[in-house]
Amino acid sequence: MKAAVPAPRPGNQMIETSGRVGFIAKGLVALTAAFVVCACFQSASASAMPATFRLGFSDGLFTSPEPSSSLALARQAGGRIVRLEAGWSGIARTKPADQRNPADPAYSFSALDRSVITAVKEGLEPLLLANAAPAWAQEPGIEKAPFQTRTGAWKPDAAAFGDFGRALATRYSGSFTPAGSSGPLPRVRTFQAWNEPNLNLYLSPQWEPDGAKWRAFAPVRYRSMLNAFTKAVKAVRRDNMVVTAGTSPYGEDVGSWRRRPLAFWRDVLCVQRRCSNPANFDALSSHPYVSSREGPLVDSFNHDDLPVLGMKRLASLLRTAENLRRVAGPKRHRLWATELGYETNPPDPDGVSLGDQSRFLTVSLFLLWKAGVDTMIWNQLLDQAAGGDIAATIQSGLFFSSGEPKPASKSFAFPFTTDPANRRSYWGIAPKRGEVFVQRLSRGRWIAVARTVTNANRIFRGTAPIPRNSVLRAVQKGVTSPLWRAG
Q1: Which helix (H) or strand (E) holds 36?
Q2: Which residue, among 413, 418, 406, 415, has the nearest Cα to 472 in the 3D structure?
Q3: Which helix (H) or strand (E) holds 335?
Q4: Residues 6 or more apart from 484 whose CB is under 8 A from it?
Q5: What is the dihedral sign for C-alpha 9, 14, 17, 18?
Q6: What phi, psi does 458 have (nearest 5°)?
Q7: Are 213 and 258 in contact, with CB atoms under 8 Å apart?
Q8: Other beta carbons within 10 Å of 21
């Protein structure tokens, strides 16, 4: 996904800005005093803060013919999980005779096998994104599809999608040995059901005419697809985990080509009225992009849009659905963000500065964690090579396409920030478990203002006497975080 551009372009999914303009990245510190920020933190509860916060990457290079170097870099950069696209339409171009059997000759898993094997060797957890229906698994009538519809998006067959999920989970169950191999493929535990189903680009149509009104099609179809996929994946191993599709963060009104994500999830989760087939999943996901020039501290105008600050609304909706017993699965579902990114200038002239990307990343991580998110996938490890068309490529990598690191790579590896609503409260994720010192720059010398110890998942937090405009850093055994100025 390519954030903060006015319209979709071929080759990428992109979003528009929510409408707030003028809050340029340079004003990040000044924004910390804004009323919208204070309100969001005062409403957050301590119980929403997860004990873990895993970071990972999504990048097309991970499923390229030679994924080794990019996956190795993802681990070196601090990633723990990588999203690998299991493109249904590419794996099953022709209809398998036995859709549940991964050994059916119509299936072509070799490229995905290579990526899964390499990721596991690098110590990374694969998240398999099942997406894009083949032509044989879409309903008739695609010639009437809205113009934004992509290949593989038109009315996918829910039962066939479930069968594909069964084949995926079986192949990567840890006990499946492909023909000609000496041993079984690695175990994959986590699967994601589709991508951005609130857009015609990925699930079409969003709406269907019903007399003089519009009837929502996409959330109803997606709930059926999700349930079929979850049932199939868990039939292979009960401890497999299913993550919902991540929704695009912005939408429009009834009848448009994109649905506002919170409204979409209200329908999927049957919050307003009980459904006969409640949604079954383990983790709910969205893609909380914001306008690249605004930064994460500005919310959307519309309540039903979900940029970074909106994720607390998604968490609230999920807990409401659980309390009403409108969803299936675990008693308490997890919350994920399976795409996020800020494009930079250089190389994209419409991107934010390198320094702003680093700061926006850090603040976004903190805000997401405070909203209850426990896993975040950064979109692009490396910038895509522009090839003469910078607008059609994604430049949100933590590394340039050459492999040269951006400042944000250090923020990803050792994020450290103060709470935008309370500069005396600090938070971070250390490279390792153990002791961490928070230091303040004073007259050219670093002095310790706090000593803390991480939890088992490397998260540390606390309070310290931090004067306004202090320059801070966190230190763990000689490794330092990027500098942070407390507002």
Answers
A1: helix 35-42
A2: 418
A3: strand 334-337
A4: 362, 416, 417, 418, 471, 472, 473
A5: positive
A6: 75, 5
A7: no
A8: 11
In 77-214, alpha helices (H): 88-91, 110-121, 158-171
Domain 25-413 in CATH 3.90.780.10 = no
Q: Going by C-beta distance under 8 Å and a sequence separation of 6 or more, which residues neighbour residue 396?
A: 2, 3, 341, 342, 343, 344, 357, 378, 379, 380, 383
> Locate tokens 């250390």: which residue?
430
Of 262, 368, 379, which Cα lies nearest the Cα of 321?
Answer: 262
Instruction: Output the tens digit of pLDDT for each of the chain's 487 residues.
Output: 564 432 332 333 222 223 222 222 333 333 333 333 333 333 334 446 899 999 999 999 999 999 999 999 999 999 999 999 999 999 999 999 999 999 999 999 999 999 999 999 999 999 999 999 999 999 999 988 888 888 899 999 999 999 999 999 999 999 999 999 999 999 999 999 999 999 999 999 999 998 889 999 999 999 999 999 999 999 999 999 999 999 999 999 899 999 999 999 999 999 999 999 999 999 999 999 997 688 999 999 999 999 999 999 999 999 999 999 999 999 999 999 999 999 999 999 999 999 999 999 999 999 999 999 999 999 999 999 887 789 889 999 999 999 999 999 999 999 999 999 999 999 999 999 999 999 999 999 999 999 999 999 999 999 999 999 999 999 999 999 999 999 8
**CB-based contact 228:162 (threshold 8 Å):** yes
Give me 419's structure tokens: 């709470």
The owner of tokens 């999504």 is 58
Q: Are 350 and 393 spatial neighbours (Cβ–Cβ below 8 Å)?
A: no
